[in-house]
C-alpha cells in the first residue's frame, strides 16, 4: 500500500480493474516527467488510447505532485514512495544488471502481466506503451455466455521459440501413447486405440524441461492462486504429444484421475504449441459442446475430475505440452479408484 498524493492509502491490485495500462515510474525527480504527463493528458483528451489505466509512482512530495494530479485528473492515482524503496526495487527488477533510468514506464495487460518497459528515449512513452498493449491484445467478439466449462485459459505461457524447441524435441523421437488403468488388481499403462490414438514423448531433456517448465510454473502459481485458490502443487513430468490428421489421432472422452496411479491429480494443463491445423479442439461435454482452443503458447487448465476429449485433428498436426498438478501430499481424489495394497 502507498499513499496517493492526497494522503489516501491505495493498493495497486485493488485499483487495477481489468484494463491494460501503464505505470509511469519516476525513481528520481526528472525534467522529462512533466513532458510525459502532458503527453498522457493530451492522448487522453484526443481519445488515442481507450481504455488504458494509468498510474504514476514517484518519491516527490504531495505538494509537488499537485500539478500532475491537475493535469491527469482524479482517475489517475499518483502513488508516493518517499523512501524510494519500492521504486528502487522496481528499477532493479526491470533493469537488472544495467543502468537504472530516473524515469521509465511499465506496460501491462488486462491481467496485470508485464508486457515490457520503455524509457525516456521512446518519447512520448505513452505511444510506446500503447503499441506494446496493441501488439499483445487478444480481441474476442463480445457476446453473452449462457454455459461454459469451469476452465482457465492462460495466453503467452511460452514463447514461439520455446514452442519450436518442444516440437523439434518430439520430432527427434516419440512412441505411441498409452492410457492408465488397472486389471486384475494391477496398475498398468497400455495402448488402447479404442480410447486414444496419439504419439508422445516424455520431456526428459533436463535443460529444456527446466527452461520451459520454470516459465510455465511461474505463471501457473499466480493464476491458480487467483482463480482456484490452489497454489501449493507439484507438477507431473511433462509430455510433448502430437495429434496428426493423417493418422486420424484423437483422445476420446475420459477423466484424468480415476486410476490408482493418477489419483492425486487435481488439475490438468494442456498447452498448445502450434497453429495451422484444423479440428483438435478440447470439449467438456458435461458443460456443453463448445470447443476450446488456446493460441500457440497458450494453455487451458481444468479439473482432472471433468470429462473431456480431444477431437480428431482433420488437417495438419496439433502439438501440445501436457502436465498435471498434484497436491504435495499426493492425496487421492475422493472419486478415484484406491491404490491396491
Characterise the protein shown here:
Strands 8, 9, 13, 14, 15, 17, 21 and 24 form an 8-stranded antiparallel beta sheet that branches. A 5-stranded mixed beta sheet has the order 5-4-3-6-7, with helices on one face. The protein has helices at 12-15, 32-46, 66-72, 85-94, 125-136, 160-171, 206-228, and strands at 2-3, 9-10, 21-26, 53-58, 78-80, 103-108, 114-119, 152-154, 175-176, 179-183, 186-190, 196-197, 199-202, 234-235, 239-244, 250-254, 265-272, 278-279, 282-283, 291-292, 299-303, 308-310, 313-315, 317-326. The chain has 7 helices and 24 strands. With 341 residues, the protein is an alpha+beta fold. Helix content is 24%, strand content 29%. The chain folds into 2 domains: 2-136, Glutaredoxin (3-Layer(aba) Sandwich), CATH 3.40.30; 152-326, q2cbj1_9rhob like domain (Jelly Rolls, Sandwich). The radius of gyration is 24 Å and the shape is elongated. Strand 1 (2-3) and strand 2 (9-10) form a beta hairpin.
- Indicate the CATH architecture of the largest domain: Sandwich
Mean of residue pLDDT? 87
CATH topology of the largest domain: Jelly Rolls
N-to-C CA distance: 53 Å
Report the CATH C-level class of the largest domain.
Answer: Mainly Beta
Task: Please sum up the structure shown.
By secondary structure, the protein is an alpha+beta fold.
Descriptive key words:
single chain, 341 residues, alpha+beta, Glutaredoxin, 2 domains, 29% strand
SSE topology:
Blueprint: E1 2-3, E2 9-10, H1 12-15, E3 21-26, H2 32-46, E4 53-58, H3 66-72, E5 78-80, H4 85-94, E6 103-108, E7 114-119, H5 125-136, E8 152-154, H6 160-171, E9 175-176, E10 179-183, E11 186-190, E12 196-197, E13 199-202, H7 206-228, E14 234-235, E15 239-244, E16 250-254, E17 265-272, E18 278-279, E19 282-283, E20 291-292, E21 299-303, E22 308-310, E23 313-315, E24 317-326
Amino acid at each position: 500500500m502507498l499513499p496517493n498524493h492526497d494522503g489516501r492509502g491505495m493498493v495497486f491490485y485493488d485499483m487495477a480493474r481489468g484494463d491494460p495500462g501503464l505505470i509511469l515510474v519516476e525513481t528520481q525527480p526528472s525534467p522529462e516527467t512533466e513532458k510525459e504527463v502532458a503527453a498522457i493528458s493530451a492522448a487522453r483528451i484526443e481519445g488515442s488510447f481507450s481504455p488504458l489505466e494509468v498510474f504514476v509512482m514517484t518519491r516527490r512530495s504531495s505538494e509537488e505532485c499537485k500539478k500532475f494530479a491537475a493535469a491527469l485528473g482524479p482517475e489517475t492515482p499518483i502513488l508516493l514512495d518517499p523512501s524510494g524503496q519500492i521504486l528502487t526495487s522496481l528499477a532493479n527488477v526491470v533493469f537488472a544488471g544495467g543502468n537504472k533510468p530516473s524515469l521509465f514506464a511499465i506496460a501491462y495487460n488486462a491481467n496485470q502481466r508485464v508486457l515490457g518497459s520503455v524509457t525516456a528515449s521512446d518519447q512520448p512513452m505513452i505511444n510506446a506503451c500503447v503499441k506494446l498493449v496493441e501488439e499483445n491484445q487478444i480481441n474476442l467478439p463480445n457476446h453473452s455466455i449462457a454455459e461454459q466449462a469451469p476452465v482457465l485459459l492462460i495466453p503467452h505461457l511460452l514463447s514461439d521459440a520455446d514452442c519450436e524447441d518442444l516440437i523439434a524435441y518430439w520430432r527427434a523421437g516419440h512412441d505411441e501413447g498409452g492410457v492408465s488403468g488397472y486389471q486384475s488388481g494391477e496398475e498398468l499403462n497400455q495402448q488402447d486405440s479404442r480410447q486414444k490414438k496419439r504419439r508422445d514423448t516424455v520431456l526428459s531433456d533436463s535443460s529444456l524441461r527446466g527452461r520451459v517448465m520454470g516459465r510455465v510454473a511461474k505463471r501457473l502459481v499466480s493464476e491458480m492462486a487467483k482463480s482456484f485458490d490452489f497454489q501449493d502443487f507439484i507438477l507431473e513430468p511433462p509430455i510433448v504429444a502430437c495429434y496428426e490428421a493423417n493418422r486420424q489421432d484423437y483422445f476420446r472422452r475420459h477423466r484424468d484421475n480415476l486410476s490408482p496411479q493418477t489419483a492425486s491429480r487435481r488439475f490438468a494443463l494442456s498447452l498448445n504449441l502450434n497453429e495451422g491445423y484444423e479440428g483438435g479442439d478440447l470439449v467438456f461435454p458435461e458443460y456443453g459442446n463448445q470447443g476450446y482452443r488456446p493460441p500457440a503458447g497458450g494453455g487451458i487448465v481444468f479439473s482432472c475430475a471433468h470429462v473431456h476429449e480431444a477431437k480428431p485433428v482433420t488437417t495438419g498436426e496439433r502439438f501440445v505440452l501436457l502436465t498435471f498438478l498434484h497436491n504435495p501430499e499426493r492425496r487421492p481424489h475422493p472419486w478415484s479408484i484406491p491404490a491396491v495394497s
